[in-house]
């Protein structure tokens, strides 16, 4: 006669290694005091998940708030047999330690740029005075920042080099206060916030300033901004400025624009006036036209790639 084999059981104790607390925002309640002993009987092959569930429910504690340990932390899939639990052995139960998630400290360059822009705008602590335009509008600036960021100002304010180094006053007569202010904004903050709002005349003025004060990154910003306002009516002025200041990217873009809009441009009065005032521009256009004609005769036409004037983040455009 077949008899069913009764599963082998093991008797053991669950001991609270510390106070087991039901924690809340308003108050916390000790559900199980430290060293409390709780007797248990389990089948040797029974999973510990049933013990965990029973113990937490019996004592009014969330299951996820407790961890159980024998020689190591017990897994819910473990069993008394798999961890070699014997009669009268003790399993310890502790509050689960929730690992602290450390938020990496971060910083934003925007705060720095905003502070530098505010320093420029309010002129606090300034020790240099710029007299700009025919009305000698005053812009107050800081010698250290100008000499650090601009080699022209560095040479100007070198001790004993020029009159400006002694009296701290600089005259800038042939530019508008608005565009000199934009140049200074770039010197202070490495950007010009409203560059996209400048018109063609303002961009050419700022391009001229960038060339005079050897601010190559600002020159590149002007070149890129110019292509967004380029038109039939101003391409001549931009091309002339590109020729004069060796602005390679702007020059190539103007020539490409000219080739795509030749008929409209040559009939434009503004363009004819620019040709007369900048004769070298005519030769540049002729050479570009010849280059394009020669390219069109090749079996496989090759399109010239317009290289951006900057590949590395030496400075920041307003959108970054």
TrEMBL record:
Read off the SUPFAM superfamilies from this record: POZ domain, Ubiquitin-like
Coiled-coil features, chain-numbered ranges: none
Cite the BTB domain residue spans from the record.
Answer: 126-192
- The superkingdom listed in its UniProt entry is Eukaryota
SMART domains associated with the record: BTB
A Pfam entry, by short name: BTB
Q: What is this protein called?
A: BTB domain-containing protein
The protein's organism comes out as Peronospora farinosa
């Amino acid at each position: 006669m077949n008899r069913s084999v009764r599963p082998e059981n093991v008797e053991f104790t669950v001991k609270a290694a510390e106070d087991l607390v039901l924690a809340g925002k308003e108050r916390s309640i000790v559900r199980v005091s430290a060293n409390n002993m709780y007797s248990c009987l389990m089948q040797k092959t029974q999973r510990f998940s049933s013990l965990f569930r029973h113990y937490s429910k019996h004592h009014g504690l969330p299951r996820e708030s407790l961890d159980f340990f024998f020689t190591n932390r017990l897994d819910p899939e473990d069993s008394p047999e798999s961890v070699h639990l014997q009669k009268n052995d003790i399993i310890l139960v502790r509050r689960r330690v929730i690992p602290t998630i450390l938020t990496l400290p971060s910083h934003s360059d925007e705060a720095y740029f905003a502070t530098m822009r505010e320093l420029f705008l309010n002129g606090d602590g300034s020790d240099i005075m710029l007299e700009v335009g025919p009305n000698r509008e005053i812009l107050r600036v800081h010698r250290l920042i100008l000499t650090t960021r601009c080699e022209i100002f560095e040479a100007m304010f070198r001790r004993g080099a020029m009159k400006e180094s002694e009296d701290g006053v600089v005259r800038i007569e042939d530019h508008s206060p608005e565009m000199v202010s934009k140049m200074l904004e770039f010197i202070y903050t490495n950007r010009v916030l409203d560059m996209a709002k400048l018109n063609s005349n303002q961009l050419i003025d700022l391009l001229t300033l960038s060339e005079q004060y050897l601010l190559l990154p600002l020159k590149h910003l002007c070149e890129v901004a110019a292509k967004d306002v380029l038109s039939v009516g101003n391409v001549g002025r931009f091309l002339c400025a590109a020729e004069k200041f060796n602005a390679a990217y702007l020059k190539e873009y103007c020539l490409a624009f000219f080739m795509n809009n030749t008929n409209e441009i040559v009939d434009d009065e503004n363009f004819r006036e620019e040709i007369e005032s900048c004769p070298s521009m005519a030769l540049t256009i002729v050479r570009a036209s010849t280059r394009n004609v020669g390219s069109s005769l090749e079996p496989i036409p090759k399109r010239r790639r317009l290289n951006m004037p900057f590949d590395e983040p030496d400075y920041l455009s307003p959108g970054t």
